[in-house]
Design brief:
Elements lengths: L9 H11 L12 H25 L3 H27 L8 H18 L3 H30 L3 H27 L2
Protein backbone atom coordinates (compact mmCIF):
# COMPACT_ATOMS: atom_id res chain seq x y z
CA UNK A 1 0.00 0.00 0.00
CA UNK A 2 1.23 3.50 -0.81
CA UNK A 3 1.84 5.73 2.17
CA UNK A 4 0.75 9.34 2.12
CA UNK A 5 3.44 11.75 3.26
CA UNK A 6 4.06 15.46 3.18
CA UNK A 7 6.95 18.00 3.00
CA UNK A 8 10.54 16.76 3.18
CA UNK A 9 13.92 18.41 3.07
CA UNK A 10 15.76 18.02 -0.18
CA UNK A 11 18.94 16.93 1.56
CA UNK A 12 17.15 14.04 3.24
CA UNK A 13 15.50 13.00 -0.01
CA UNK A 14 18.83 13.01 -1.81
CA UNK A 15 20.61 11.16 0.98
CA UNK A 16 17.86 8.54 1.05
CA UNK A 17 17.92 7.97 -2.69
CA UNK A 18 21.71 7.99 -2.92
CA UNK A 19 21.93 5.48 -0.07
CA UNK A 20 19.98 2.96 -2.14
CA UNK A 21 21.33 3.95 -5.53
CA UNK A 22 23.13 1.32 -7.56
CA UNK A 23 26.89 1.57 -7.31
CA UNK A 24 29.93 -0.17 -8.65
CA UNK A 25 29.83 -2.37 -5.56
CA UNK A 26 27.98 -5.50 -6.64
CA UNK A 27 26.87 -6.06 -3.06
CA UNK A 28 24.57 -3.04 -3.19
CA UNK A 29 21.10 -4.05 -4.32
CA UNK A 30 19.64 -2.27 -7.31
CA UNK A 31 16.26 -0.62 -6.87
CA UNK A 32 13.54 -2.63 -8.57
CA UNK A 33 10.62 -1.13 -10.48
CA UNK A 34 8.19 -1.65 -7.59
CA UNK A 35 10.51 0.30 -5.26
CA UNK A 36 11.11 3.01 -7.85
CA UNK A 37 7.35 3.39 -8.36
CA UNK A 38 6.84 3.77 -4.61
CA UNK A 39 9.65 6.35 -4.29
CA UNK A 40 8.32 8.39 -7.22
CA UNK A 41 4.77 8.25 -5.92
CA UNK A 42 5.89 9.21 -2.43
CA UNK A 43 7.83 12.20 -3.74
CA UNK A 44 4.74 13.31 -5.67
CA UNK A 45 2.53 13.04 -2.61
CA UNK A 46 5.07 15.05 -0.61
CA UNK A 47 4.70 17.94 -3.02
CA UNK A 48 0.91 17.68 -3.12
CA UNK A 49 0.78 17.90 0.67
CA UNK A 50 3.24 20.81 0.74
CA UNK A 51 1.15 22.62 -1.88
CA UNK A 52 -2.03 22.00 0.11
CA UNK A 53 -0.35 23.43 3.20
CA UNK A 54 0.68 26.51 1.22
CA UNK A 55 -2.88 26.94 -0.02
CA UNK A 56 -4.08 26.94 3.59
CA UNK A 57 -1.41 29.25 4.98
CA UNK A 58 -0.37 31.69 2.26
CA UNK A 59 -2.16 34.83 1.24
CA UNK A 60 0.40 35.65 -1.48
CA UNK A 61 -1.17 35.20 -4.93
CA UNK A 62 2.05 34.09 -6.61
CA UNK A 63 2.74 31.50 -3.89
CA UNK A 64 -0.84 30.27 -3.97
CA UNK A 65 -0.84 29.98 -7.77
CA UNK A 66 2.42 28.02 -7.64
CA UNK A 67 1.09 25.78 -4.86
CA UNK A 68 -2.09 25.04 -6.82
CA UNK A 69 0.02 24.16 -9.84
CA UNK A 70 2.08 21.74 -7.70
CA UNK A 71 -1.06 20.10 -6.32
CA UNK A 72 -2.64 19.72 -9.75
CA UNK A 73 0.47 18.53 -11.60
CA UNK A 74 1.69 16.09 -8.97
CA UNK A 75 -1.77 14.60 -8.49
CA UNK A 76 -2.01 14.10 -12.26
CA UNK A 77 1.39 12.41 -12.46
CA UNK A 78 0.57 10.21 -9.48
CA UNK A 79 -2.74 9.23 -11.07
CA UNK A 80 -0.81 8.15 -14.18
CA UNK A 81 1.66 6.24 -12.02
CA UNK A 82 -1.14 4.42 -10.20
CA UNK A 83 -2.81 3.55 -13.51
CA UNK A 84 0.50 2.22 -14.83
CA UNK A 85 1.26 0.02 -11.82
CA UNK A 86 -2.29 -1.32 -11.97
CA UNK A 87 -1.93 -2.06 -15.69
CA UNK A 88 1.41 -3.77 -15.10
CA UNK A 89 0.02 -5.62 -12.07
CA UNK A 90 2.88 -4.31 -9.95
CA UNK A 91 2.47 -3.60 -6.26
CA UNK A 92 4.65 -0.62 -5.29
CA UNK A 93 7.08 -1.71 -2.59
CA UNK A 94 7.69 0.34 0.50
CA UNK A 95 11.44 0.57 1.05
CA UNK A 96 14.07 2.38 3.09
CA UNK A 97 13.90 5.45 0.87
CA UNK A 98 10.12 5.84 1.05
CA UNK A 99 10.18 5.14 4.80
CA UNK A 100 12.80 7.82 5.31
CA UNK A 101 10.81 10.22 3.16
CA UNK A 102 7.69 9.63 5.24
CA UNK A 103 9.54 10.27 8.48
CA UNK A 104 11.30 13.40 7.28
CA UNK A 105 8.17 14.70 5.58
CA UNK A 106 6.35 14.86 8.88
CA UNK A 107 9.22 16.86 10.38
CA UNK A 108 9.30 19.34 7.49
CA UNK A 109 5.54 19.79 7.56
CA UNK A 110 5.72 20.58 11.28
CA UNK A 111 8.43 23.18 10.63
CA UNK A 112 6.46 24.88 7.87
CA UNK A 113 3.22 24.73 9.86
CA UNK A 114 4.75 26.91 12.58
CA UNK A 115 5.45 29.73 10.12
CA UNK A 116 3.08 32.33 8.75
CA UNK A 117 3.00 35.26 6.37
CA UNK A 118 6.15 36.17 4.49
CA UNK A 119 8.27 33.78 6.59
CA UNK A 120 6.10 30.86 5.50
CA UNK A 121 6.08 31.97 1.86
CA UNK A 122 9.89 32.25 1.74
CA UNK A 123 10.45 28.93 3.51
CA UNK A 124 7.91 27.15 1.30
CA UNK A 125 9.41 28.57 -1.90
CA UNK A 126 12.97 27.75 -0.81
CA UNK A 127 11.93 24.21 0.07
CA UNK A 128 10.25 23.80 -3.32
CA UNK A 129 13.42 24.91 -5.11
CA UNK A 130 15.56 22.48 -3.12
CA UNK A 131 12.99 19.69 -3.38
CA UNK A 132 12.70 19.91 -7.17
CA UNK A 133 16.48 20.17 -7.66
CA UNK A 134 16.91 17.03 -5.61
CA UNK A 135 14.05 15.08 -7.18
CA UNK A 136 15.20 16.02 -10.67
CA UNK A 137 18.75 14.94 -9.86
CA UNK A 138 17.53 11.65 -8.39
CA UNK A 139 15.32 10.99 -11.41
CA UNK A 140 18.23 11.62 -13.79
CA UNK A 141 20.97 9.81 -11.92
CA UNK A 142 19.18 6.97 -10.13
CA UNK A 143 15.50 6.33 -10.74
CA UNK A 144 15.31 6.55 -14.55
CA UNK A 145 18.54 4.56 -15.13
CA UNK A 146 17.42 1.91 -12.61
CA UNK A 147 13.95 1.43 -14.08
CA UNK A 148 13.76 -1.69 -16.21
CA UNK A 149 10.18 -1.37 -17.50
CA UNK A 150 10.01 0.89 -20.55
CA UNK A 151 6.62 2.37 -19.61
CA UNK A 152 7.77 3.21 -16.09
CA UNK A 153 10.97 4.72 -17.49
CA UNK A 154 8.88 6.77 -19.94
CA UNK A 155 6.60 8.05 -17.18
CA UNK A 156 9.62 9.04 -15.09
CA UNK A 157 11.17 10.83 -18.08
CA UNK A 158 7.92 12.72 -18.72
CA UNK A 159 7.75 13.60 -15.03
CA UNK A 160 11.33 14.87 -15.12
CA UNK A 161 10.51 17.33 -17.91
CA UNK A 162 7.50 18.60 -15.97
CA UNK A 163 9.45 18.82 -12.70
CA UNK A 164 12.29 20.73 -14.35
CA UNK A 165 9.66 23.34 -15.22
CA UNK A 166 8.50 23.26 -11.59
CA UNK A 167 12.06 23.94 -10.44
CA UNK A 168 12.32 26.99 -12.72
CA UNK A 169 8.93 28.23 -11.51
CA UNK A 170 9.93 27.71 -7.86
CA UNK A 171 13.17 29.62 -8.44
CA UNK A 172 11.20 32.50 -9.92
CA UNK A 173 8.75 32.56 -6.99
CA UNK A 174 11.60 32.40 -4.46
CA UNK A 175 13.45 35.25 -6.18
CA UNK A 176 10.32 37.42 -6.16
CA UNK A 177 9.91 36.91 -2.40
CA UNK A 178 13.35 38.28 -1.45
Amino acid sequence: MLKIVSGVSAAVLLASIVALAPSADAQNAKLNDAQIAHIAYTAGVIDVKAGELALKKSKNKEVRDFAQNMVDDHKAVNDKALALVKKLKVTPQDNDVSKSLAKQAATKEAELSKLSGAAFDKAYAANEVAFHKTVNGALQSTLIPSASNAELKGLLETGLKLFQGHQEHAEHVAADLK
